[in-house]
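Entry type: protein chain
Record version: 2
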Amino acid sequence: MLCQPCQSDCSTESTSNIYDRTLSSSFSNYTNSGQPVSYTYTDPYVTSEGFLARDMVYYGSNSSVQYTFGCGVQNKGDYGSASGYLGLGPGDFSPATQLGIQNFSYCLGPELDGAIYFGYDTISSGNSTLLLRNSLVPQYYYVNLTGIKVGNQDLDIPSTSILPQSDGSGGMFITTTISLTYLEESAYKATKDELINQVNLSQTDGSEYDLDLCFDISGVDNPLDSIPQLTLHLNGADMVPPIDNYFVSDTNGTILCLAVLPSTDVSVLGTWMQTNFMMFYDLNAGALQFQSFNCSSLD
């Protein structure tokens, strides 16, 4: 969370979205052996340095908890109108852990809209896959990615590339704080090569956008029609995202890029790939349910 005194890149659209501890009578530093604890959050686009803080949070009709959160005073990146990032992993400081919630769901819209729900019942229908935990990387929920299909072609990917390994590497974790999806290098190469094989468009340089696989769509009508369907095979379910979840174009409509990048050791299911899916986490059952949904229609 962006906090006062904000010393760098306090680029929220409203200063009222920046937490000011001097206005709270219930604020306190989170301490270890009596000492304040420093804290750093980093993703590919945002860095925040500060300290762990505690304050009273009220939720539901009459519930409250002394809530611990990261208070960023040295920040880099564009937060837009938001006051910070909400991490939903299984760590000690996640909302589900601190509020004692056994299930939650969210639905991410394409225009930074959508909704999040804590404590609601399961979705009425949809696909279901196991939620996995990695004891060496305990801050994330993982899913078992068993394969990838491009169009009608299942890719030949070594299982060691996509399944969790004993040293903590591998596997695919889900995040609500990283936009792009990342695939382990050999899985990414197989996906990229097959897309190049199937897409009848000219490649072009996408380094301006920090993306790897891009096509020239100048003068092309309905360019997404040229892109094959990507399917992520999960244990017990297939995730079939809309094409504009994994291909993005520039504002001029001249370049179309794959919103997926390679990773050296772990795959990441980013927020763009989850757009317009209702994602329901049943922590008691250790399961993730998901179904297509118009997230922009939610309040």
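Comment: The mean pLDDT is 88.
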